[in-house]
Amino acid sequence: MECRRFVCGPLSNNCYVIWNRVTSQSVIVDAPLGSLAAYEAFLEETSASAVALLLTHGHWDHMADASIFQEKYSVPVHVHGDDLSIMRDPPSAMNYSVQGVEIPGCEPDVIIGDGDKLQLLGTEWIIRSVAGHTPGGVVYYVPEWKFLFSGDVLFRGKIGRSGMKSRDGTLLIEQLRLKVLTLPEDVEVLPGHGAATTVGEEARTNPSLRCSFGDAAADFSCPVAANLPENMHNGL
Ligand SMILES: [Fe+2]
Predict the structure, then answer these.
(1) Cα of 132 from ligand 1 centre, angstroms
(2) CA 232 / ligand 1 centre spacing (Å)
(3) Are 207 and 157 in contact (CB under 8 A)?
(4) What is the residue extent of each domain of the chain?
(5) Ligand 1 centroid to 121 CA: how many Å?
(6) 152 CA to middle of ligand 1, Å?
(7) How far is the CA of 16 from the centre of ligand 1 (A)?
(8) What separation in Å is there between the alpha carbon of 57 and the centre of ligand 1?
């Protein structure tokens, strides 16, 4: 198994391609703008077919290329049902436009939920819902490889933006403590933006997960957010 990270789109999203060299099958985690082109360059090298596109949540910057993955490669798109509305209508979750870019909606092929298990690339992928950034946010945990794809709910040293409602921030922290910090500390966390970390590192050092709920709810954003205009933070 190999895992490659492609950084794509105006918000520097991570797209991960996990590839089994023996079976020539791959799984894609998140489909930001430009990820199809990155994947096609990868295909020239490997000829690996894609068996699933797993979305961590429905925000436009993570699903912008999902519909063209479906159309061109018939890759089944997986997403939590609580993010269906923003998948179908991406601009509904944006308070700005990206010049010259239209994000097409996507009708998922597979609706996933908390506790679901997928067999992909010869191993088990466990889905844990972590609401609070979006209602349908999930993390994908692969016990055999000790990987956790965390989307926008957990970054290195940060947690995800919790939206406009403070209770969502509290919910996000509760969910992270329950669904993520209970995993083995050497599990590698592969976020939707920025560099990888581990469960143990975040449990020890992430200020949002160490401080009180009330304080932590105000501490959000991903590593690239500091470089963005204020009105572009909404998708993160
Ligand atoms: Fe997001």
Answers:
(1) 10
(2) 12
(3) yes
(4) 2-235
(5) 26
(6) 5
(7) 16
(8) 7
Q: 10-58: per-residue pLDDT in tens? A: 999 999 999 999 999 999 999 999 999 999 999 998 989 999 999 999 9
Calculate how far, in angstroms, residue 83's C-alpha sits from the geometric centre of ligand 1. 11
- Which two three-digit tokens encode residue 199? 């469960």
Express each pLDDT in 185-196 by its tens digit.
999 999 999 999
Q: What is the CATH number of domain 2-235?
A: 3.60.15.10
